[in-house]
Amino acid sequence: MTTTDPMPSGTTQGTPQVLLAHHLKQLKLPTVLREYDKLARECARDGVDHPRYLLRLVELELIDRERRLVERRIRQARFPATKSLDSFMFPAIPSLNKMLVLELARCEYILRRENIIALGNSGTGKTHIGLSLGLAACQKGFSVAFTTAAGLVHQLMEARDEKRLIKLQRELQAVRLLIIDELGYVPLSPTGAELLFEVFSQRYEHGSTIVTSNLPFEEWTSVFGSERLTGALLDRLTHHVHILSFNGESYRLAQSTAHRRLTVRAEPVDAGAAAEAAS
Q: How many CA atoms lie within 13 A of 269 on its CB side?
């Protein structure tokens, strides 16, 4: 049951500040409560009239409210890390279509219920791009969920055993963007493969899905264990799809090497050791 702060006893008792603070808390306007006094002094100093003062105050509340909503969507997505496209080394993966990635970051594909499949060797940045597109979707106002393929299958099997599979399936169908990472790293049991297929099938033309995999399509049968099931899955997943190719050397290795080089350059030089080495 929701509890509320007690109303100050009598509107004639208590200062206007106390009553205003109470009302703003009841209305859930924390930014107005925090900023109204400071902003009032600034507007009085600058000769700003009352409507413009109120406009500025409401704009601050709206901006802060949107920030809190974005933060909530990011928490609910359960990203293992927060990654942005600004930190991705596109030159390290020349096969990746940068313009397409930047276009996808606008999130219009989610409105069209299209999918994204990122294929390439391990360590080439597929997860980074998936996380970055997930972050962009949160910032655009879409609900997002992130999971690995193995983790999702584990959740599905656990939910089936506990008689709550339908509830979980509905939750997965409702999310606007589902990111399934590392498909192909672990072979699936026949039951796990069927449960994962159901997720894709239920989301078909209802929501967007991002899948990352280290395997080309022709090897997905080794994961699902059935040509029939794999064919039906690919038929749904690739109907409306954007393919991102990550062919190249390990992106993580390149990042690690670059970091070590910067660390070596930044380390202070021991004058005595340098002199001894030079002698």
A: 6
pLDDT average, residue stretch 196-215: 96
Question: Any idea which of 13-22, 54-63, 83-92, 130-139 has the lowest mean pLDDT?
Answer: 13-22
Tell me, yes or no, whether 235 and 114 share the same domain: yes
The half-sphere exposure of 115 on its side-chain side, counting CA atoms within 13 A, is 24
Do residues 20 and 144 share a domain? no
Of 171, 173, 111, 172, the C-alpha closest to 137 is 111
Number of separate domains in the chain: 2
Domain of residue 23 covers 16-71
Residue 160: its H or E element: helix 149-161
The residue that leads in pLDDT, 13 or 20, is 20
Specify whether 92 is located in the same domain as 176: yes
Report if residue 139 sits inside a domain: yes
Any idea which of 47-61, 93-107, 128-142, 256-270 has the lowest mean pLDDT?
256-270
Is there a single domain that holds both residue 133 and residue 160? yes
Helical ranges in the chain per DSSP H? 16-26, 30-46, 50-77, 98-104, 108-111, 126-139, 149-161, 165-174, 190-203, 221-224, 227-237, 251-266, 271-278
155-166 pLDDT, tens per residue?
999 999 999 999
Quick one: 22 and 54 in the same domain?
Answer: yes
Give the span between the Cα atoms of 212 and 246, in whole angstroms.
10
Same-domain status, 61 and 160: no
- pLDDT beyond 80 at 263: no
Q: CA separation (Å) from 235 to 154, 182, 187, 239?
A: 24, 20, 20, 6
CB 117 within 8 A of CB 238: yes
